[in-house]
Design a protein that fits this description.
alpha+beta; 5 strands; about 10% strand; about 290 residues; single chain
Length: about 290
């Protein structure tokens, strides 16, 4: 084998090795890019969850502060009533029946104190349930654009806002095929919570609307809400007794209607998880 042949063989070997290494490098770079994208998505979801958690903590802190103030007032009243009762008894200016009446009033104050403690526990429990529900909903719908769907807790109530761009064609109230998939995911979470009741609200912008039998934005907002409710009942089996439909027309805006972007934000359908007030009313019932 001459020197030229040996040199040529070596050059071919180096070139082949370089091609293989380049392919491996590109494959690893593509894998790294995919991992970075996944990491960014997870980080975004975590940031949103942390914001919701911080909001709940602020609400909880405010409630605890109110309850603490009530407890201080109760303690003050107890002390004053006890001292006043003792002074009156010592002076013998009240009868035994009057003293017993005052004593019962003081016992009622103690009962109210216990009620406040129970109410505090119920509020903490409700906050936990709401946070779990929000996490389940966000996990179900996945990484949708925040402009299309937004799930949040505000003043202890869970809201699911879905843009009309995702649900309906312009000026229509029939739910689009693409939106049915999203509503199906939301329905699956709600169906696993049989005690939950919710209201579907239709919202519009301020642009006047009239088309066929629909007279105005009131009609359009109601028809869009009933379209969503009907779909949840007929296609996904949600209990109609747990649902309500309402139209808000243009009168509950969340953005400025003077801009196209603001009007787009106002055209939305909102699912409101209704608070279970009957549980709190039961706390007011006398114990038997």
């Amino acid at each position: 084998m001459n020197k030229f042949t040996i040199a040529l063989s070596g050059l071919l070997l180096i070139t082949f090795s370089s091609c293989v290494s380049t392919k491996k490098l590109k494959a690893k770079e593509a894998e790294l890019t995919a991992l970075q994208t996944k990491y960014d998505q997870i980080a975004g979801s975590l940031a949103t969850c942390n914001d919701d958690k911080a909001n709940l903590n602020r609400q909880k802190s405010s409630l605890e502060n109110d309850i603490s103030n009530l407890n201080k007032q109760l303690d003050y009243l107890k002390q004053n009533n006890t001292q006043a009762l003792k002074q009156l008894q010592d002076l013998s200016v009240i009868s035994a029946s009057q003293a017993e009446s005052i004593k019962k009033s003081m016992e009622n104050i103690g009962a109210k104190d216990a009620y406040i403690q129970t109410l505090q526990q119920q509020m903490a429990h409700k906050d936990s349930l709401n946070m779990a529900l929000v996490m389940n909903l966000k996990g179900a719908v996945g990484n949708l654009d925040d402009k299309d769907i937004n799930i949040k807790v505000d003043k202890g109530v869970v809201y699911i806002d879905i843009s009309d761009k995702l649900l309906f064609k312009s000026g229509k109230y029939e739910v689009t095929k693409d939106a049915k998939g999203v509503l199906g995911k939301v329905a699956a979470v709600l169906k696993n919570q049989p005690d939950i009741e919710f209201m579907v609200e239709g919202h519009t912008d301020t642009v006047a609307y009239k088309n066929g039998v629909l007279l105005d934005n009131w009609d359009l907002s109601v028809k869009r809400a009933t379209s969503v409710v009907r779909l949840l009942q007929n296609d996904y089996g949600l209990d109609p007794a747990k649902m309500a439909a309402a139209g808000r027309s243009e009168y509950k805006p969340i953005a400025d209607n003077s801009t196209e972007e603001g009007r787009a934000a106002n055209r939305r359908t909102r699912i409101v998880i209704l608070p279970q007030l009957d549980q709190f009313f039961k706390l007011l019932e006398p114990k038997k």
